[in-house]
């Protein structure tokens, strides 16, 4: 297969950046999108040009490092699939493919397609944990968890923190990510003690990081590689509302 | 956003139902309008309740718009540099048109008040004779066009708004997602149809 790839090149946060066009031929339909970029980079290196910087790690859809905006869609055209798991057979021979980084103020571009997603860590730091007594590991059956709660928590726990929800949201909001954490932990008995403060603190950290406000457009869940449902945001809103009504003051940041 | 949206929503529903009085004829419609001014007059005096409603609506609209502007500002700040290539994607059309839809509705409401409440822009224009104001206006095709555009915009706005507000208030259990979507759709379609029925009935001579 042969593609015209228009890639965002940006040398650093000071550079304005631009799309640069490359022709990539001899691409196998079985290659992943990242492997196609590997091929491009090998050729750029041979020509003595700077290879395209992009993030990746596991290449098996679980680490959340590999987010790219492909033809305007976070993680590309295939639903519930990370960029590393996207195959070139999803495209048509001869296609022009535009590749851009996630675009959001809290995700500054480090170089080319690499962005700093540290803002998500700040949100997690504000409440994405449960308090446990240290010492020996608790007995596995000590805290029973209802099957329905376990399933729901697990569904939300599937979030890999890739940031596609932010990239896709017209408001640049990270509510789907934050809601997934809140729903995951709040649903489990282990996470119940901090349920109120978690919701308020994580929301405050989310807003403080410069993410936009959610208006339930649903763009996020459509591109989420793990299919986190929009209902998690309703659950998050419910937790926030309940915590506010109970007067559970969040911790000072 | 959700709370003020619901206040406006309940008003819009009541207003639509009230408009249907026109199908009962001139006397019924005009006496309904008089009743709106008379209601609660024992307690708050002539038009007292009406003015209370007007003030609540005005405050709601202002707060609703303030919240919308804040959201739009935050959104712009969160994405200072946009995508070079971005197809109209994934989510719903109604959700993507809330901001412009809201602006259209707001402009319409100003026109609408000048048309049928104050009467300045109405061909008949006698505030005490609402039936004749309505029927003379809707004999003009361009008046019907303005109302049609605004009502369709309102339908879309309510379609996403009701659903979104239910979620913002966290009242929707995960398993009720599709139900809430259907409820919002049915309500929006009923509202649109109810409002549209009046201008088209006049235009086609069903009410005269
Ligand atoms: C006066 C002009 C209006 C403006 C400028 C306006 C603007 C907006 C905007 C920008 C939003 C945010 C939507 C989003 O991005 O998701 C919104 C939401 C909403 N609007 Fe309006 N709107 C207006 C009138 C109305 C009316 C007449 C109603 C009543 C039917 C209404 C009901 C709602 C509801 C229920 C929401 C959803 C709130 C939420 O998401 O929690 N709006 N409006
Ligand atoms: S590289 Fe790990 S999820 Fe794609």
From TrEMBL, chain A:
Transmembrane segments: none annotated. Its cofactor is [4Fe-4S] cluster; [3Fe-4S] cluster; [2Fe-2S] cluster. Its EC number is 1.3.5.1. The keyword Oxidoreductase applies. Keywords: 2Fe-2S, 3Fe-4S, 4Fe-4S, Iron, Iron-sulfur, Metal-binding, Oxidoreductase, Tricarboxylic acid cycle. The keyword Iron applies. Belongs to the succinate dehydrogenase/fumarate reductase iron-sulfur protein family. This is succinate dehydrogenase.
UniProtKB/TrEMBL annotation, chain B:
InterPro entries: Cytochrome_b-558, SQR/QFR_C/D. Coiled coil: none annotated. It comes from the Bacteria. Keywords: Membrane, Transmembrane, Transmembrane helix. The chain crosses the membrane at residues 49-69, 100-121, 141-158, 179-202. This is Succinate dehydrogenase / fumarate reductase cytochrome b subunit. The lineage of its organism: Bacteria, Bacillati, Actinomycetota, Actinomycetes, Pseudonocardiales.
């Amino acid at each position: 297969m042969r593609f015209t790839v228009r890639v965002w090149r940006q040398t650093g946060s000071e550079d304005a950046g631009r799309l640069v066009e490359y022709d990539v031929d001899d691409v196998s339909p079985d290659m992943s999108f990242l492997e196609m970029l590997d091929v491009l980079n090998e050729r750029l290196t041979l020509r003595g040009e700077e290879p395209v910087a992009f993030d990746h790690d596991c290449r098996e859809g679980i680490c959340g490092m590999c987010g790219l905006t492909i033809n305007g869609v976070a993680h590309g055209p295939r639903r519930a699939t990370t960029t590393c798991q996207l195959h070139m057979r999803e495209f048509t021979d001869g296609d022009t493919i535009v590749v851009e980084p996630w675009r959001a103020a809290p995700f500054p571009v480090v170089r080319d397609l690499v962005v700093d997603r540290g803002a998500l860590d700040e949100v997690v730091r504000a409440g994405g944990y449960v308090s446990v007594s240290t010492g020996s590991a608790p007995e596995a059956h000590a805290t029973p968890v209802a099957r329905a709660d376990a399933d729901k928590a697990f569904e939300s726990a599937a979030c890999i923190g890739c940031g596609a929800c932010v990239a896709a949201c017209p408001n640049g909001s990270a509510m789907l990510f934050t809601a997934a954490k809140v729903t995951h932990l709040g649903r489990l008995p282990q996470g119940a003690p901090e349920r109120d403060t978690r919701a308020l603190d994580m929301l405050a950290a989310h807003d403080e990081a410069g993410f936009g406000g959610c208006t339930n457009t649903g763009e996020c869940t459509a591109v989420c590689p793990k299919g986190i449902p929009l209902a998690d945001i309703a659950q998050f809103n419910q937790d926030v509302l309940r915590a506010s009504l109970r007067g559970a003051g969040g911790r000072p940041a | 956003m959700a709370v003020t949206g619901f206040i406006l929503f309940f008003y819009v529903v009541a207003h639509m139902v009230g408009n249907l009085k026109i199908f009962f004829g001139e006397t019924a419609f005009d006496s309904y309008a008089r009743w709106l001014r008379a209601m609660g007059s024992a307690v708050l005096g002539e038009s007292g309740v009406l003015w209370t409603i007007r003030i609540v609506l005005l405050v709601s609209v202002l707060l609703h718009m303030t919240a919308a502007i804040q959201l739009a500002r935050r959104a712009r700040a969160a994405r200072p540099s946009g995508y070079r290539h971005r197809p109209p994607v994934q989510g719903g059309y109604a959700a993507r048109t809330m901001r412009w839809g809201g602006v259209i509705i707001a402009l319409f409401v100003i026109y609408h008040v000048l048309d049928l409440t104050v009467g300045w822009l109405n061909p008949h224009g006698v505030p005490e004779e609402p039936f004749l104001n309505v029927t003379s206006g809707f004999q003009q095709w361009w008046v019907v066009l303005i109302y049609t555009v605004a009502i369709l915009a309102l339908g879309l706005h309510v379609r996403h708004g009701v659903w979104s507000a239910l979620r913002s208030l966290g009242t929707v259990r995960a398993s009720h997602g599709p139900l809430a979507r259907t409820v919002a759709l049915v309500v929006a379609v009923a509202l649109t149809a109810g409002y549209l029925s009046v201008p088209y009935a006049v235009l086609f001579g069903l009410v005269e």
